[in-house]
Amino acid sequence: MAETSLRLAADDPDRAERERRAIIRAAHRLIGREGRATTPLEDILRGAGVNRRTFYRHFPSKDALILTMQREAAAGVRDSLRAVVRQAGDARAAVVAWIEELLAIGWDERASRDGRTFMTPEVGLVVGIAEALEDIYAEHRGILAEVLAAGRTDGSLPAAEPEWDALAIHAVVVRYLEMRARGRLDRPFAAVVDDVVRRFLPAAPGTRG
């Protein structure tokens, strides 16, 4: 019966993807729940409604699952950052859009809940997680640095120091997200965005600084 199930999954890409997504969603729900130091793999399997053979067909280990979760979440953020930057009318607007899009994670219930998964001590112990996170941060900062460089080139952000400013803006936004995730920031989203924008960008044309 198990072999038949595996063959069916292998022949049905949609079923295989449903299994994979179920495992990832279960891991997001269960990792760090109730302050537990570790989450048994069996709990994730039960939460996803799969067995060990199905799990290992998708992921070689629980650590590999967590790294995949992190990579996929980061890719979604990257794509959304690129999209809002492309849609902005000018470099300043693109920087504001980047700030808004990344900060919005903290005020979106599902995104915020998933983000807290990666702040748990259990995830912090995964081999390779710190290096992967720095690569992710560098990619997200790179999008912002490109926009800042464009603004300096066209004169709309003449004082911009792209790499340094991107590092500083990203650090502040990530800190706000961490505070929000830990319940230490209850300010409205718009107020936090305004705080970051005012700290790092000149006033928009036609407004008072």
TrEMBL record:
Pfam families: TetR_N. Keywords: DNA-binding, Transcription, Transcription regulation. GO terms for molecular function: DNA-binding transcription factor activity; transcription cis-regulatory region binding. InterPro entries: Homeodomain-like_sf, HTH-type_TetR-like_transc_reg, HTH_TetR. It comes from the Bacteria. SUPFAM superfamilies: Homeodomain-like. Residues 17-77 form the HTH tetR-type domain. PROSITE patterns: HTH_TETR_2 (PS50977). Residues 40-59 bind DNA. This is Transcriptional regulator, TetR family.
